[in-house]
Amino acid sequence: MGLSALTPPKSQDAVHETLLEFHDNRLLIDLCGEFDRNLAQIEHKLDVQIVRRGNMLSVMGTGSARGRAAAVLQELYSKLEAGREIEPGDIDGVIRMGHSETAEHGLPGDQMEMFRGGEVEIKTRKKLIEPRTAAQKTYVQNLFKNELAFGIGPAGTGKTYLAVAVGVNMLINGHVDRIILSRPAVEAGERLGFLPGTQDEKVDPYMQPLYDALNDFLPAKQLAKMKEEKTIEIAPLAFMRGRTLSRAFVVLDEAQNATTMQMKMFLTRLGEGSRMVITGDRSQVDLPRGVPSGLRDAERILAGVPNIAFNYFSSKDVVRHPLVAAIIEAYEADEAQ
Domain PhoH-like protein spans what residues (predicted)? Predict the structure, then answer.
C-alpha cells in the first residue's frame, strides 16, 4: 500500500521510536496536513511526538501510545491511497475506532460492501459517512439489519445524523421508496394552527435539524425535487396519525418528547418493507410535569422483543466540539449526586 514500518536498531529502542516509511511523497504531505496540523492532532490525542524525516515519520512515545499512533497513521494513509480526503473528524474517528472487526452476516450485497475489512461506510449523493466510535458503528449495523432500531443517548452522538444518512443510502439504492422524518413539536403543541404562515412555515423551526442533515447528503436541487414529489417528507409527529408507512425509511427524532400514546401510535405506523428508527435523549424531556416519556415506556415495554435493536450512547460518543462531551459529563456527574 506504499507504506512500510522500519524496525529501528536496538540503540533506538531506548528512545522509544518507531519509523514509518511512505513511498508517495504527495500523499505524505496530505497525511501531515497544512502546517502539520494532522500530526499535531494525533500527537495531542495520543501523547506522542511525530517528526518528519524526508519520506519517513518518526513516532516517539511509550510503547502502547506509539503503536496506536503508528496504526492511526497507517489507516489514514490507506484512506488517502483510496482517493479519500482527511478531515479533523476523520482523525478523531480512526483514533476512537481502533481496528475492531465488523460482522457482515445477514446483509444484502450492496450493504455487505460497506462492512468489508472491518470498516463501515455510508455512501450518499454528496459525501461518504463513517461512524467515529464503536457505538456508532454498531448502531449503523443495526440500522441496516433491523426493521426497528432505537438510538438513545446525549446530544452530539450522531444518532439522528447517522439515521438520516442510512435512510438516504437505502433510498438511492432502491431498498425503500421514500424517507419520512418526524419530530414532536412539543413547544407548539395544539397551538400550531394559530401560528402565521403555511403548514411548512409553522413547523420548519422544529424540523431544522432534519433539514440540516439532509442538506449534507443530497444536492440542493435533488432534495427540493424529492420534497416536492413527497419522496422525502418532514412532518411533526401529530401528522402521522392514521397513516400506514410502507416501503419507507422512517425516523422519529427527539422521541423523549413523545407521550406514551404518541409513541404507540407512531410505532404502529410501520408498514410492509419499511424501516423505522427512534432517536432520543432521556435527559432532555420537555413534556409537562407528570406526563411520562413515551421513549422510556417503549424501552421497558419492548425490551426483549425480537428484531428490535436498542443502541445506547454516552459522552464518549460525542463527535461535536470536545467541550460538548465535557459539558455532558459534568451534568451527568451532578445528576448522580
Answer: 129-332
Q: Chain-centre distance of CA 71, in angstroms?
A: 23
Q: Estimate to the nearest angstrom the gap between the alpha carbon of 294 and the chain centroid.
A: 23
Indicate if 329 and 232 belong to the same structural domain: yes
Q: What is the pLDDT of residues 277-332, one digit of tens each?
A: 999 998 888 888 889 999 999 999 999 898 899 999 988 888 766 677 678 778 87
- CB contact burial 4-39 (16+ within 10 A = b; e otherwise): eeeeeeeeeeeebbbbbebebeebbebbbbeebebb
Residues 213, 88 within the same domain: no
Domain carrying residue 230: 109-336
Q: How many Cβ atoms from other residues are within 10 Å of residue 1's Cβ?
A: 11
CATH, residue 76: 3.30.1370.10
Same domain, 85 and 134: no
